[in-house]
């Protein structure tokens, strides 16, 4: 009987709202409300819990756990003027108020989504698809004669990615948290500016006296009138930021607003979301971001050994004739990647990054939305994991690297070409948008030592890209005679302003534009040229240019190709090293999209006690053994 009850409970649990486990709530209580950068000055950094919920419009909301968002009930439920009824949104279907019991009511989950792209810095919160909702609840008074003066708690269909260093939930207040008249608080609100760019607005707010119908409401006045009336209110409690209220209606200019108290509904939030544990004291503790792990490849890469990586680091980025002013001498790492099309071959400017590795923009092998390979076959982006995807063997076999990219055989060789043996994609995996990324290629053999005029460009250290000028685009373009030749043009990076701003995207402009120009963007650093970006798209004016950041993806080149910038004085255990003969590999931490633990999984404190099994695993085991038992009984007893 106990087994049957557990089985039924497990079956019912799938597809319904999932509270935080005790371990997840414990972890939340230790990290909530604490900003990672204690020297932060931008609103983006000061409010990593600011997100938005979306119906027909965007509404400010606050992240309160890795899968739960809190906002004002007024974002979705509206009181019909002069009538005792509510509707789902303005002019929407009626709310069945009879289903609101004990200050709780289920909200249709398909009516809203969550937008995590609320800040202005796309390296902190890059474009992601809007997150679907698994469940949503209204918590507040159940009286249609008045406005829905409560909160909306939303459970997302998927958790915030484990590898995200940016998103931090705000804390939920304890029952003894009080708000006093004249107390100074702060409104943290995700909004848009006049150019429709995402911004986070922080407004000083003062608690004021007002006449409210019950103790679940309080009033506050803003330092200036904000846009809209759904403003989250934050109070700093014991050095952690705590969300204490959401505005539900305001006066004419919305400078004074009435707020629903989060403290008042603390028990309902605990009951629905499992956010129950008292906030733990202490400063911010950095997330332990797992390093990227290799996916299994059919065509494995021959990584640089440690000694090869040391040699690559010492020679990269230095032309053999640095005193020359000719592009043919100053860009010895510029090559072509050739892929077939109906008219012959497409020549794609690429960059040599070791004696056997080349990097090229992803459009060399596939492009368009939805993505297609050069023969028109759709790219199966479901195989793209952790922003990495293997290129199928049939396309690798049709891809070659053309090394002779100038008309001087003494500097480029004569008709030198190599077959590609391995290829892997790094970049955006979302099927809704273009595959902004690069492809790492390995040639079928190393460059011969007797060809000293081929020199690899350097790979940068992993870091957040910065805007800079005095950069150089090393490319292959057309001269005045329409002949393809190596080119170098001056460029500078700028802030990206497009709607889709990806985690690995940088933007630039060229001063000397050539509409046929593509290739690698480099920065002179300690006398060497360091590849910081790969051109993905530019218009005919070169004023709108999107590139893939090599600084963001740097750790993947170490992991897959062994190009880790190992210096001869480095010891094997102290530096990142992807070579065969390395003793230990240390990879920069942040990488978008690492795998998550299964929902509900709990880590043990002793490194893996097998006696501790999470709820989801128990359900799976229960269902499995129940099925086995039922099969045996059917065989033995004939039912």
UniProtKB/TrEMBL annotation:
<protein>
    <recommendedName>
        <fullName>Peptidase S1 domain-containing protein</fullName>
    </recommendedName>
</protein>
<dbReference type="InterPro" id="IPR005514">
    <property type="entry name" value="DUF316"/>
</dbReference>
<dbReference type="InterPro" id="IPR009003">
    <property type="entry name" value="Peptidase_S1_PA"/>
</dbReference>
<feature type="signal peptide">
    <location>
        <begin position="1"/>
        <end position="17"/>
    </location>
</feature>
<dbReference type="Pfam" id="PF03761">
    <property type="entry name" value="DUF316"/>
</dbReference>
<feature type="region of interest" description="Disordered">
    <location>
        <begin position="571"/>
        <end position="612"/>
    </location>
</feature>
<keyword id="KW-0732">Signal</keyword>
<dbReference type="InterPro" id="IPR043504">
    <property type="entry name" value="Peptidase_S1_PA_chymotrypsin"/>
</dbReference>
């Amino acid at each position: 009987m106990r087994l049957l009850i557990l089985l039924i409970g497990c079956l019912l649990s799938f597809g319904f709202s999932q509270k935080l486990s005790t371990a997840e709530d414990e972890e939340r209580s230790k990290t909530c409300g604490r900003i990672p950068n204690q020297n932060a000055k931008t609103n983006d950094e000061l409010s990593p819990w600011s997100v938005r919920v979306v119906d027909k419009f965007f509404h400010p909301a606050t992240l309160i756990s890795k899968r739960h968002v809190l906002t004002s009930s007024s974002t979705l439920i509206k009181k019909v003027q002069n009538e005792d009824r509510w509707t789902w949104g303005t002019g929407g279907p009626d709310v069945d108020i009879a289903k609101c019991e004990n200050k709780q009511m289920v909200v249709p989950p398909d009516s809203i989504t969550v937008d995590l792209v609320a800040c202005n810095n796309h390296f902190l919160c890059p474009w992601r698809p809007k997150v679907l909702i698994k469940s949503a609840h209204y918590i507040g008074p159940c009286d249609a004669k008045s406005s829905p003066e409560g909160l909306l708690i939303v459970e997302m269909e998927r958790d915030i990615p484990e590898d995200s260093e940016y998103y931090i939930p705000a804390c939920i207040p304890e029952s003894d948290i009080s708000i006093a008249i004249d107390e100074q608080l702060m409104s943290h609100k995700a909004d848009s500016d006049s150019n429709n760019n995402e911004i986070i607005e922080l407004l000083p707010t003062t608690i004021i006296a007002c006449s409210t119908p019950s103790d679940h409401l309080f009033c506050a006045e803003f330092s200036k009138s904000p846009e809209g009336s759904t403003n989250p209110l934050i109070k700093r409690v014991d050095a952690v930021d705590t969300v204490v209220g959401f505005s539900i209606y305001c006066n004419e200019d919305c400078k004074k607003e009435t707020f629903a108290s989060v403290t008042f509904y603390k028990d309902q939030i605990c009951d629905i979301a499992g956010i129950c544990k008292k906030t733990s004291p202490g400063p911010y503790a950095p997330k332990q971001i797992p390093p990227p792990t290799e996916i299994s490849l059919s065509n494995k890469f021959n990584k640089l050994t440690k000694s090869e990586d040391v040699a690559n680091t010492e020679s990269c980025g230095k032309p053999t004739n640095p005193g020359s002013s000719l592009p043919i001498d100053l860009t010895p790492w510029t090559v072509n990647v050739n892929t077939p099309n109906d008219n012959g071959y497409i020549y794609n400017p690429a960059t040599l990054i070791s004696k056997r590795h080349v990097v090229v923009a992803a459009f060399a092998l596939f492009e368009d939305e939805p993505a297609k390979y050069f023969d028109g076959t759709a790219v199966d982006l479901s195989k793209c994991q952790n922003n990495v995807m293997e290129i199928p063997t049939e396309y690798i076999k049709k891809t070659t690297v053309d090394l002779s990219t100038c008309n001087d055989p003494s500097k480029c060789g004569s008709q030198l070409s190599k077959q590609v043996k391995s290829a892997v994609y790094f970049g955006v995996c979302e099927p809704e948008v273009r595959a902004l990324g690069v492809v790492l290629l390995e040639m079928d053999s190393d460059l011969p030592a007797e060809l000293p005029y081929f020199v690899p460009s350097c790979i940068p250290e992993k870091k957040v890209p910065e805007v800079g000028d005095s950069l150089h685009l090393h490319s292959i373009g057309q001269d005045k005679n329409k002949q393809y030749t190596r080119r170098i043009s001056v460029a500078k990076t700028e802030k990206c302003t497009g709607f889709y701003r990806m985690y690995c995207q940088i933007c630039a402009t060229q001063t000397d534009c050539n509409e046929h120009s593509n290739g690698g963007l480099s920065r002179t650093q300690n006398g060497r040229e360091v590849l910081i970006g790969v051109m993905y798209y530019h218009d005919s004016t070169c004023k709108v240019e999107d590139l893939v950041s090599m600084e963001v993806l740097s750790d993947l080149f170490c992991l897959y190709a062994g190009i880790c910038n190992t210096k001869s004085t480095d010891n094997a255990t102290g530096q990142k090293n992807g070579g065969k003969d390395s003793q230990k590999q240390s990879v920069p931490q942040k990488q978008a999209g690492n795998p998550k633990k299964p929902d509900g999984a709990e880590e043990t404190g002793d490194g893996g006690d097998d006696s501790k099994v999470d709820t989801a695993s128990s359900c799976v085991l229960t269902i499995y053994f129940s099925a086995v038992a039922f099969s045996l009984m059917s065989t033995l007893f004939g039912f």
